[in-house]
Write a structure and sequence with these properties.
It is built from 13 helices and 31 strands. The two termini are 52 Å apart. The protein is 26% helix and 32% strand. It is elongated and about 110 Å long. It folds into 5 domains: 11-189, 3-Layer(aba) Sandwich (Rossmann fold); 202-286, Elongation Factor Tu (Ef-tu), domain 3, CATH 2.40.30; 305-376, Alpha-Beta Plaits; 383-489, Alpha-Beta Plaits; 493-607, Alpha-Beta Plaits, CATH 3.30.70.
Length: 608
């Protein structure tokens, strides 16, 4: 591509902004309308959700991988502006990425659904934006819906968010109604960036993605200084040094520039091999003229949910290995290591940011690399204090030590904010208490909507909590959480025995109060899936040597007494005894083949 010989645009004509909202309030649709208004994409090339590249994003209507786009805009005052839209993922699993994107902006558009109103993540994202001292423009979307109630939402903006409802812009992003007021508001209400182009380089990495031909493309916001091709840059978190090959801006495609200066948002290509070499939140500076201090707020992303992934067929291990390798290039937050199971063979133990992240990785592996997979029950990270005072961190039931050597165990707790109409208060209270929750506080946001704060064990939330919350609140409940600390718990290892043999892939770490219920459900599911044999099969749930649940699969039987028509009863008994001995001998040598569907049914049983 040819280089564009344009000088850096005057800083006062740049606006860096983000769109924040609860899931499914219309972020991607508003982005589409802004892109169409600024004619960055020809009408023939345009498609809905243009910033969402993955099929999963389009199907689920969520943004998983955030995007950036540079929009040239001619305002009503006849001045030309550059609007840098830094899109953010919408789901609670990706909160850290949202915070880094907001740190790169001066303002944010807070999008609220006219029929749903203010929800949990609307509040969470607003607080995050206020922490970064951003200017907020409230926008009420979906005013074309029959259920839209603009007056109620304006009241919520005033009461719940503390913003001026009169400044809210009323739009329908889908229909295009009122959208022309949005870029004008961005130009008039959001402040321009500040910074000195002559200072030492200080740029924030807020995202990155992998390109098969150029390596990692690093997304940056430049706060101080200037970066251009052939500069030698350094990442401050790991002191890695690279030589810049290309800089530029995103306009769906990459547009190269001669330089990126303070206030601008764009990309750097510097021959970086993998995405994991670039860390979200890291600071880029010059090797020979570094800035004084890195940007604040950098932290390593830590996985919170763990699961083992195995191929359905044992010869699929190599394909799974290469699939994970390629996926890791695009997803730095995915971590994995080799794992093995007696029942399922070779696989990988993976760490995820949350349950949605796990589902996305599973779907991408199955679709993009054509793999058939089995996932073990999701687990969290537990902290074990041993009798000798040493502390062990485990996330895999296979690594659980002898219980007699453990002094105490701790599990992670979350602080959950749940916003619901008050008529569902009793049902939500029961749901949270059933999941070992502690009710901390609740407050009325409006006359009929309330926010409930619970502290819950993360292990209880990763299974089926969100689905059940949506069920009991008929879809009106919204949920947001953050991890707070580790607390003491009564942890046990639940083993599943089939015909007396432990099946390691079905082992789970559970709270003692939950063990019996979990064991019964697993045994019931296995009884439905495992085919009958010529001998009796016992399916048992056990904690150590104690059997806490049992189901039996009856054997096929031949009617050995059919040929007896009358005569002494001892003759019949003799034949039945002979058959019984044969069955007993068969049970000792017989092998029970567990079909893959049985593993899948047990692991899904927690979600149903």
């Amino acid at each position: 591509m040819p280089q564009e010989n344009t000088l850096p645009i005057e800083m006062k004509r740049i606006r860096n902004f983000s769109i924040i909202a609860h899931i499914d309030h219309g972020k991607s649709t508003l982005s589409d309308r802004l892109i169409q208004m600024t004619h960055v994409v020809l009408d023939r090339d345009f498609k809905d959700q243009i910033l969402d590249n993955m099929d999963i994003e389009r199907e689920r209507g969520i943004t998983i991988k955030s995007q950036t786009i540079c929009l040239p805009y001619q305002a009503k005052d006849k001045q030309s502006y550059i609007l840098n839209l830094i899109d953010t993922p919408g789901h609670v699993d990706f909160t850290y990425e949202v915070s880094r994107a907001l740190a790169s902006c001066e303002g944010a558009l807070l999008l609220i659904d006219a029929s749903q109103g203010v929800e949990a993540q609307t509040l969470a994202n607003l607080y995050m934006a206020l922490e970064h001292d951003l200017e907020i423009i409230p926008i009420i979307n979906k005013i074309d819906l029959p259920s839209a109630d603009v007056d109620r939402v304006k009241q919520q903006i005033k009461d719940d968010l503390g913003l001026d409802p009169e400044t809210a812009i009323l739009i329908s992003a889908k229909e295009g109604t009122g959208v022309e007021a949005v870029p004008e508001a961005i130009v008039n209400y959001l402040p321009p960036p500040s910074g000195d182009q002559e200072s030492p380089l200080q740029a924030l990495i807020f995202d990155s993605h992998y390109d098969a031909f150029r390596g990692t493309i690093v997304h940056i916001r430049v706060f101080q200084g200037t970066v251009k091709p052939k500069d030698t840059i350094m990442f401050m978190s790991n002191n890695a040094v690279y030589r810049v090959e290309e800089v530029g801006v995103f306009q769906i495609k990459r547009i190269p520039r001669n330089a990126l200066s303070a206030g601008e948002v764009g990309y750097i290509i510097a021959g970086i091999k993998t995405v994991s070499d670039t860390r979200c939140g890291d600071t880029v500076t010059m090797k020979h003229r570094p800035c004084e201090s890195p940007m604040p707020g950098f932290k390593e992303t830590k996985p919170v949910v763990f699961s083992s992934i195995y191929p359905v067929a044992s010869d699929g291990y190599e394909d799974l290995s290469s699939g994970l390798e390629k996926l890791k290039l695009n997803d730095a937050s995915l971590i994995y290591e080799k794992d093995t199971s007696v029942a399922l063979g070779f696989g990988f133990r993976c760490g995820f940011l949350g349950l949605l992240h796990l589902e996305v990785v599973q779907e991408r592996l199955e679709r993009e690399y054509d793999l058939s997979l089995i996932l073990t029950a999701p687990s969290v990270r537990y902290e074990l204090t041993m009798n000798d005072g040493t502390i062990k961190i485990i996330d895999n039931p296979a690594l659980y030590p002898d219980p007699t050597t453990i002094e105490r165990t701790k599990e992670p707790f979350i602080r959950a904010a749940i916003i619901i109409p008050d008529r569902y208060m009793g049902l939500v209270m029961k749901l949270c208490l059933d999941h070992r929750g502690i009710n901390k506080t609740y407050q009325y946001l409006t006359s009929n909507r309330l926010e409930m704060i619970f502290e819950l064990p993360l292990a209880e939330v990763i299974y089926d909590f969100y689905d059940k919350l949506k069920s009991v609140t008929q879809g009106f409940g919204s949920f947001d959480y953050d991890i707070i600390d580790f607390r003491e718990t009564d942890l046990v290892k639940l083993d599943i025995l089939i015909n007396g043999e432990r099946v390691d892939a079905l082992s789970q770490l559970v709270h003692r109060d939950r063990a019996v219920d979990r064991a019964r459900r697993a045994c019931e599911k296995l009884r439905e899936e495992i085919p009958r044999q010529m001998f009796k099969i016992a399916i048992q749930g056990a904690i150590g040597g104690n059997i806490i649940a049992r189901k039996t699969i009856s054997p096929f039987r031949k009617d050995v007494t059919a040929k007896c028509y009358g005569g002494d009863v001892t003759r019949k008994r003799k034949l039945l005894e002979k058959q019984k001995k044969g069955k007993k001998r068969m049970k000792m040598v017989g092998q029970v083949m567990i079909p893959q569907s049985a593993f899948l049914s047990v692991l899904k049983s927690d979600k149903e």
